[in-house]
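Q: Could you fold this chain for me?
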Amino acid sequence: MTRDGLEPETQARGQATRLQRPKPPCLSEKAGAGPAQRDGEGARRLKQVVERYRSTRARGVTLDERPGCVYGMLTREEVDDLVKEIEELKGTLNKIYLSLVLMLVGLVVNALLEKLGGL
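A: Sure. Below is the predicted structure, expressed as structure tokens.
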């Protein structure tokens, strides 16, 4: 091998030497240059990563909800507190709605009983 990484190659006795770059290991004759033999560690890892990506996309997991900084953490806490307060307000409004409906039903029943009792 010469100083620049090239290997000398002679074709026959008495002919001039020509320099040639070494073949990559996946294409050399020793490794079996067929396409099935080229699937090495890199190709296997790439297939694993693609499969993991596809399975993650199939599950619908696309966002990382962890805060990336302190500001994100603080705003996440404030948003969570607002969500809790809104849920409490919804509960209170549902109770008020239920009490109004019950009062209306009571008034209708009372009016019907008075009308039937007056006969």
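A (continued): The first strand starts at residue 7 and ends at 9.
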